[in-house]
Amino acid sequence: MKNFYLETFGCQMNVVDSEQIVDLLQGIGYVQVGSAEEADLVLLNTCSVRDKAERKVYGHLGRFKPVKDQRPELIIGVGGCVAQQEGERMLEKVPYLDLVFGTHNIHKLPQMVEQVEAKRQRSSATEFLDRDTRLHLFPERTRKESVTRFVTVMQGCDNFCSYCIVPHVRGREISRPSSDILAEITALVAQGVKEVTLLGQNVNSYGINDPDEVSFAELLRRVDAIVGLERLRFATSHPKDLTPELIACFGELSKLCRHIHLPVQCGSDRILQLMNRGYTAADYLAKVEQLRAVCPDIRLTTDIIVGFPRETEADFQQTLDLVKAVGYVDAFTFLYSPRIETAAAKMPDMVSGAEKQDRFDRLVALQQQTSEEIWQTDVGTIQDILVEGESKQGQGQLFGRTTWNRIVNFSGPADLVGSVVPLKITRSFRNSHLGELLNRQD
Ligand code: SAH
Ligand code: SF4
Ligand code: F3S
To answer: To 10 degrees, what angle do helices 281-294 and 313-326 make?
Structure first.
């Protein structure tokens, strides 16, 4: 028996890719274990979206060196976005590394591992797949008992936001055939899955490059019609591709949750243009208004980058103004990090580290206050919760989520897992709510 240890960093795309890695390795006789010390094969699935994420990979690899010194037969591999970016260079940089596999080469992993086992030959594979071989990007994954699942509907990104490495490490946008997506979700629902999140770097440009494919809104309508599915979400959307047809779905589809993650990045038109985002603050706010017109209690979350090159205090004030105007329930805020190969990395007039941090802290403080105010409005209300499983709080508690994706912990019998139940929200904490089961009428 051979063991493997896998660590995953980065976004949900990597989480899904890691599920495929697990399947493939099990297929060649490997069993997953919880530490590198017990493993014959150690793999890192990596993220390079910011410098910190990339440095983390080298830090982690360093931890495995003493293990390899003791057991030279240990195979160490790196996959994901850092692997894609660095390619063979990584083998030069890290002499004890055996395998480098890029974001389009996961299906080759079994063959690569067997090659290293047999010949002790180091190898890397980081070429992008073309459209004809794209189905390798959307493998069927093994069954896993779960109430919620991610389903990849497209890969890659064509937007080339000037700060972002994703188009460089994930390749061009490729959509998965809608018939495959619907078949996978139907099969998942038959296994007991109640909620799916349609996943892509830029999910609402689904089908744009495929004239024969349905629109993303039509895909949502078809998924919504699958009998037995309770809830539907999608991530991540680009504001410029949020069409009236897609906005209308929030008013029409009963299973579509009343939450959208809509990264704005910045509130200044000048910076948005430098970022190559393709919309102005006013365009964005108009779409938020349209969303609220069809779905008054929809909640929004966002991503914001602070300290983009040439961002002035006045630009930053516009970001604060936009955040106040929208009233996000949550925001993921990032310090700008220059990335290799991106257009912004060559831009002059970087904001100083201290200034960036100061703006970041002010934004986080504003957002925290807004988030808490919104969450407090839930206290005392009754919300439908899809029960997902046992709570991390232990003590026989269960957890589920509101339509707004907020975690609610509560006491209840385990047979509720997989059903939607009304709960009274009794308290709100930083990361979750506490709820109370209403008397069931059974
Ligand atoms: N495809 C998604 C996610 C991209 S990465 C989208 O378009 O929204 C997630 C977030 O990381 C981005 O929304 C952006 O806010 C942030 N990000 C990307 N590149 C960055 C960089 N170079 N520095 C800081 N934050 C960055
Ligand atoms: Fe990056 Fe922009 Fe593509 Fe998102 S839309 S992945 S931020 S290039
Ligand atoms: Fe990171 Fe790659 Fe995702 S760079 S954010 S893991 S697409």
So the answer is: 10
In the structure, what pLDDT confidence band is assigned to residue 441 with cuts at 50, 70 and 90?
low
Q: Beta strand pairing status for 231-235 and 259-261?
A: unpaired
What average pLDDT does this structure show over 308-331? 98
Rounded CA separation 85/414 (Å)? 45
Domain 260-277+287-376 in CATH 3.30.830.10: no
Residue identified by tokens 């028996």 is 1
Query: Ligand 1: does its nearest atom lie under 6 Å from the Cβ of 334?
Result: yes
Q: What is the token pair recorded at 197?
A: 């999140």
Of 276, 278, 272, 258, the residue nearest 316 (C-alpha): 272
Neighbours of 257 (CB within 10 A): 22
Helix and strand numbers (H, E) in the chain are 13, 19
166 touches ligand 1 (CB under 6 Å): yes
**Residue 301 carries which side chain, given as an amino acid letter?**
T
The finding on whether 181 has its CB within 6 A of some atom of ligand 3 is no
Cis check: omega of the bond before 301, within 30 degrees of 0:
no
Q: Which CATH class is domain 133-257?
A: alpha beta
Which ligand has its closest atom nearest to the C-alpha of 235?
A: 1
The model's confidence at residue 280, banded by pLDDT at 50, 70 and 90, is very high
pLDDT class for 378, splitting at 50, 70, 90?
Answer: very high
User: What are the C-alpha distances in Å from 169 to residues 175, 340, 342, 382?
Assistant: 17, 11, 11, 44
- Residue with the smallest CA separation from ligand 3 atom 1 is 47
Amino acid at residue number 295: C
Give the domain ranges of the chain: 2-127, 133-257, 260-277+287-376, 382-437
